[in-house]
Every structure is written in C-alpha cells, then in structure tokens.
Amino acid sequence: MKVKEEKDSIAKSTGLVSSATLLSRVFGLIREQVFAYLFGAGLATDAFVAAFRIPNLLRDLLAEGALSSAFIPVFTEKLTLQGKEEAFRLTNLIINLLLILLCVIIVLGIIFSPAIVNLIAPGFNKVEGKIELTTLLTRIMFPFLALVSLAAICMGTLNSFRRFGAPALAPALFNLGMILAGFFISPFLDPPITGMAIGVILGGIGQLAIQLPFLFRLGYKYKPILNWNDPGVRKILLLLSPAILGLASTQVNIFINTLIASLLPQGSVSYLNYSFRLMHFPLGVFGVAVATVTFPVLAEKAAHKNYGEIISTCSSSMKLIFFFTLPSAIFLAVGSKQIISLLFQHGRFGYMDTIATAQALNFYAIGLFAYASVRVLAPVFYTIGNAKIPVISSTISVGVNIILNLILMHPLSYRGLALATSFSAILNMSILLSLLHKKVGKFDKMDLGRSFLKILIASAMMGMVIQVFLFLFPLDLEFDSLGQKILLVGVMLIISLFSYILFASLLGIKEVNRILGIFKYKG
Fold first, then answer.
1. Cβ neighbours of 477 (radius 10 Å)
2. Predicted model pTM
3. How far apart are CA 218 and CA 16, in angstroms?
4. Is residue 382 within 8 Å of residue 243, measured between CB atoms?
5. What residues contact residue 511 under an 8 Å CB cut-off, 6+ apart?
6. pLDDT by residue (tens digit) across 139-154?
C-alpha cells in the first residue's frame, strides 16, 4: 500500500473508531451523570474513585495499555510471517498464562485491600467510615482486572486484523453495565455505592462478551494450552515490563494525584475525577482512536523493517491528533463551567461543585494533546524492540509530576495536581518526540511544529469566537433551566465546529481535507 493510501486508510479507520468511541464516551458521560445525580461529590464518590483507581491502574498497566503494546507487535509479526494458525496459537498461550497470573494477583489484592487502601488514600482515615467503605469497594472490583485483561487480548487480536469496530464499542458495554447498576442495583444495597462496584464487574463481562463473536468469526478457537518457553510468549513478556513503565506515566500520575488529593479537603478526589473523565471524552474519541488505528499499521511495517514508512505514518498520525485535540482542549477550557453544569449539576452535585470541577478541567485541558500524543509515540519504540526510551521518559515525567504536586498542592490545592499532570504529560511527549529521529529514522520536526502552530492558532481563534458568544448570551448556571443549558452548549458546539473548520481552511491546514475524507467514508 502506498504511503498516501496508508494515510487515507488510517484517517478512514479513525473515523470508524471515533464513531464507535463517541458512543462509548456518551455512555461514559451518562455514567458520570448517574454518579453525580446519585452520589454528588462527597464521601461515597471519593471512596469509589479511590477504590476503582487500584484495579483501573492495574488495567492500564497490565491490560489495555502495556499488554496491548507488547502483544500486538508480536502477534502481527506471527500473522505476517507465519500465518493465522500460529498467531491464534499465541493468543491462546497468552490467555491461559494471563488467567493463571491474574487469579493470583486478584486473590492477593482482595486479601491485602486494607493495606493497599491505606497506602493510596491515607487521608481517608480522617473521615469516619471512609477507609472501610473504600476497602469494601476495592475488594468487589478487583476481579474486573481479569475481565478487562482478556478483553484487551481480544482487542489486540482484532485490531491486528484491522477489525476496529467491536473493540471500540466494547467500553460502551462497560459504561452501560454501571449505568444500569446505578438505577437497578444500588437502590437495594446498603451502602448504595456498592451497587456501582457490582456494575463495574457486569460492565467488564459485557466488554469481553461483545468482542468474542467477531473473534470466532475470524477462525479463532480457544485451546487450553500453556508453554512458558514459547518464543512468542517470551518476547511478549520481555516487552511487557518496559511497556508497563513506558506507558504508565499518565495513569501513575493520576494515581499519585488521588493519593495526594486524599490529603486535601473532601471532594478534591471527586473534582479531579469528574474533570479528568470529561477530558477523556475527546481523548478517547480522537486521541485514542488515532493511536488504536495507527499501532497495527506501525507493527506491520516494523515486521518488514520499513522504518521510513514508520516515521511517515507516525508524523501523519501526530498531525491528526493535534488537529482534533487542540481545539477540543480550547473548547473544554472556554466552556468548562457551561459543559459541567449541563452534564453534572443535578441531584446532589451543586453549583459550587461545578465551579470547582471546571477549575480542575481547565488545568487538565492544557495537557490533552500531550496525553494523546504519547499514545502514538511510545508504541513506536516497542514495535522496533527499543523499550529503553519510553521507560526513561515515563520515569522522568512521573518524577517531575510528584515534585510539581508537592510544590503546587498548597497554593493551588487540587488544581495544582491537575496542572502538574499536564506539565508531566507534555514533558513525556517532548522527550519521546525529540529522540524519535535518533532511534527510528529522520523525523521532520519543523514540519510537525508548523502544523502544530497553525492548528493552535486556528483553535485559539475558535476559542475567541466562543468567548464572544458567551459574553453576548450569558447564562445563570445556578438557576437557569436544563433546557436553556442544552441550547447554550449545543449552539456553542455548532459555532466552535464551523469556526474551527473555517479558520483551519484559511490557514491551509491539510488535515481538513483528510477529515472530509472521513465523512465521505462514513457516508
């Protein structure tokens, strides 16, 4: 496939994944609305967020992030060079190995949950019953790790065959499980928040189940085989440890934020969680979608040792990420209060919670483009078997995040934690980008920089248009109706979309035509 055709294919596949991910993120927002309505931003939500942070961190380190990064290149190499039968054999070997290891981790996690919770949220001891509730929720949710890990293997296998739809839809089932649990399980339990923990397990089952029919359709058959000495298994295990460190920075930083936020006033953990989840909407719909589609392409090129096309594909994907995430960040920052008021300001989530969450979102939005960029950059090094750079970069960024957290936590409270996370993400991206050409091939950083600047200018101009609109049509977020808020945010979204496309076209940003190609594909 020619380079231009490959870029167009990535753009079109990104459209498919973005559409599926958009549905998942909509369900995710509904899930957070259910949380806000039923539990507000107090003790129960703080406890759930801290408890879920533990299996969620392990999920990102062992499952969706690192495992996929280690598995896809080896699976793709098997599929490309040895055929489908050997590739599926590798899938079975990894699944069976995972089941053994994860059962041990889950049992140990349940046993030692009290110690783990005291380690990650020491400040919860100041509130009666908070540490005990967090421990209970942690124990309920630990089995989620096994479900999401198996789902990640299914996703990696399907993506290697360029099947992106079902894996992208899978998180929608996870969110749906939690939404249904909030209404149909939580009311019958004491405390009600335990129903949401059960919803995590139900959602994990759905996330795995939706992918299985598509996997079987490709010819996969499960076999109870185990071989620790298989070359493919050994190669994945060798890649897994550095992949955990290399891709862990964002989640580790969020994990550290939770620990430090537990020492701050009650509600801080919830404000950070609601804002980061909202930022995850464009991160998933655009950033993760581009990374998901790009990774199998990079792995295939690496199997053929075609490093020139790896660089070209990576650069093209980075421009797509900038094109989507920079305007998204500006939109979230400028309209943060209006968006959060519309989505979350119901039930026990009040106006002051909206203001506090908006402040955290403003600081998180600064690093949105960097979070997404790392998703593309880090796996490039794993596809060529060079894991040192992502590991070093991740370690440095985590260290800087901890230092900045300690510096900023007192003058800025929880807002400083969000700002520190953004700075560390930008640092991580900068290190990976600056060293890419040295380890992979010549990389035109000037061309990428020009694209970034043009997109940033177009996004800033879009932000100014939104500011003028909000000045001309102000809204009382504390007292105005839900219908008025829906109308305001809807018009704001339409204005931002058309103004951004206009400014991007005037500045000659090439990605505009590629995006039009996506819509043509979708039609």
1. 19
2. 0.73
3. 19
4. yes
5. 319, 320, 323, 451, 455, 504
6. 999 999 889 889 989 9
